[in-house]
Specification:
Layout: H1 9-15, H2 22-33, H3 44-57, H4 61-66, H5 73-94, H6 118-127, H7 133-142, H8 170-173, H9 210-218, E1 238-243, E2 248-253, H10 268-276
Antiparallel strand pairs: 1-2
The structure holds a DNA duplex.
Keywords: DNA-binding, Nucleus, Repeat, Transcription, Transcription regulation
Biased composition (Low complexity): 90-103
Subcellular location: Nucleus
Length: 286
DNA sequence: AATACTTGCAACCGCCTGGTC
DNA sequence: AGACCAGGCGGTTGCAAGTAT
């Protein structure tokens, strides 16, 4: 491969005299031999990015890998299945159902799901010393509720979660539908997942969804309460009430769109615009 | 020390897609 | 149009290494 470059993999297998098919050679090259592969454990930044991307793309490992230089789809897939998935599962089971009304993934009428106001979010972004604060700000301006890790509501509003502090809850704020891996994603992120990852009670987590974002973008009302029903598949029967008075984000309606939703129906490029400005994307692969 | 169990990762398998004839 | 092939992809398996008993 190094001397001849990528050509026909069956030729590679033949010319190398290997007892392998071209397909096997290709896999070996891609997953192991490629010189640009990044070895070693996943960094917290990579971990967060994977969770973020997975929430948008689902099990599209190759697309996720395309955004993680030096990592292969297989590697990411293994990492997800062996580490992240397990961690999210554990954290969801270890979360006391009494602490939140959101134990039922479809029940989002409970209070306390979100107590971070837009101003809080802005403060969080503006106070962040991260170089990404400007992009964060832009995102918040564009999508008042952005699928980004802005989850804490009371303990430490004014600091970005420390990227080095382990898995903070990008997962809990993201949306994924129709990707079955045993976790409740629903329309509103990984329900009940991940609270312990950052030492927060689940009830303290806001779980904004991409649907929320879409609705938000279309809704310019300044009224404290808005309600919008969208008839397309993605937003079917979702009503959102944004009550700024008590800073709670209360939602109601049919939250398990499930069958109505197909990843392919999403505008991936639009969704990934947010990914491209993900605050930790500016880390350098070593 | 021996055995059982768990974990992480590379490789395999089967399906799908796109190109060519 | 349909057969064939190569490549791409996601799910699954096998196994070595690590850990617990």
């Amino acid at each position: 491969m190094l001397s001849n470059g990528q050509g026909c993999w069956s030729d590679v297998a033949r010319n190398a005299g290997l007892q392998r098919c071209g397909k096997s050679c290709r896999l070996r090259w891609i997953n192991y031999l490629r010189p640009d592969l990044k070895r070693g454990a996943f960094s917290p930044q990579e971990e967060e990015l994977i969770i973020h991307l997975h929430s948008v793309l689902g099990n599209r490992w190759s697309q996720i890998a395309a955004r993680l230089p030096g990592r292969t789809d297989n590697e990411i897939k293994n990492f997800w299945n062996s580490t992240i998935k397990k961690r999210l599962k554990n954290s969801s089971t270890s979360t006391s159902p009494n602490k939140s009304n959101a134990s039922d993934p479809r029940d989002f009428t409970g209070a306390g799901l979100f107590s971070m106001s837009e101003q809080d979010i802005m403060n969080l972004c503006m106070d962040s010393s991260s170089s990404s604060s400007s992009s964060m700000h832009a995102m918040v301006m564009r999508n008042r509720f952005d699928p980004l890790p802005m989850l804490e509501n009371s303990h430490d509003h004014h600091h970005m979660p420390n990227a080095g502090a382990g898995l903070f809850n990008v997962s809990a704020c993201m949306t994924q539908v129709g990707i079955g891996d045993g976790l409740f994603y629903g329309n509103h992120g990984i329900i009940g997942g991940g609270g312990n990852n950052i030492g927060l009670d689940q009830s303290e987590l806001f779980i904004p969804s991409l649907e929320c974002i879409s609705i938000e973008e279309e809704n310019n009302t300044t009224d404290n309460t808005f309600e919008k029903t969208n008839n397309n598949n993605l937003l079917n029967n979702i009503n959102i009430i944004n009550n700024n008075n008590n800073n709670n984000f209360v939602e109601s309606g049919n939250y398990w769109g499930g069958e109505n939703l197909r990843m392919g129906e999403w505008d991936m490029e639009e969704l990934l615009e947010d990914v491209s400005s993900f605050p930790f994307l500016d880390f350098q692969v070593q």
